[in-house]
Amino acid sequence: xxxxxxxxxxxxxxxxxxxxxxxxxxxxxxxxxxxxxxxxxxxxxxxxxxxxxxxxxxxxxxxxxxxxxxxxxxxxxxxxxxxxxxxxxxxxxxxxxxxxxxxxxxxxxxxxxxxxxxxxxxxxxxxxxxxxxxxxxxxxxxxxxxxxxxxxxxxxxxxxxxxxxxxxxxxxxxxxxxxxxxxxxxxxxxxxxxxxxxxxxxxxxxxxxxxxxxxxxxxxxxxxxxxxxxxxxxxxxxxxxxxxxxxxxxxxxxxxxxxxxxxx
Length: 264
What we know:
- This protein is mainly alpha-helical and 264 residues long.
- The chain has helices at residues 8-17, 44-56, 60-73, 78-93, 97-110, 117-129, 140-155, 162-189, 193-206, 213-226, 230-243, 248-260.
- It starts with 7 loop residues before the first helix and ends with a helix.
């Protein structure tokens, strides 16, 4: 399974990217903001401070609603743009990933060239990544995480977020390969050797840098022998031996070839 990504380092990176210079310090409003007053019309300074206060107190859902109000009540204020990102971050911290993605996407649609665009793309990628399920379930979200994290790397290869996106993308690739392996092993147990070989070949061809490649090559050797094509089994075993000579899967493949196709 893929390691869950909710690490302290990631959270610190997200929070640090959204540190706000205290330009509003002189704009009063010391009274606390009650949950049921989020739709009361207020000046932008008071409203933004209230949202920031809730965020600081880790009341993420209320903070997100208040940041949304900044944008709704004061769409032409310079703070509306920042509120969009803060709203996305607040939803993310509350594990409300769909509205987090929507808020970040709305920011990008309105401000595609903004200096904070890399952060918005990164937040979208993380929001998908956090939702990755185990390999026994549908992997649509995993594919979306792969695409979103890849977008960060493609668009902003030198940004502060690209290195972390690359690390997470490696885990996403491993997760997708694990799904293919699970399906392939299922087909093997059902003696559907052709379907199994297709899945294992997918791992070897598309996910060759993942931890699943040695086993995939061994399973290909098994499948080809079962299909009666020892020449292909020999090729898979040879690739396994050349790239992973000391690996346990190669030792098993070697014994398998010696037993069932010594003359191949």
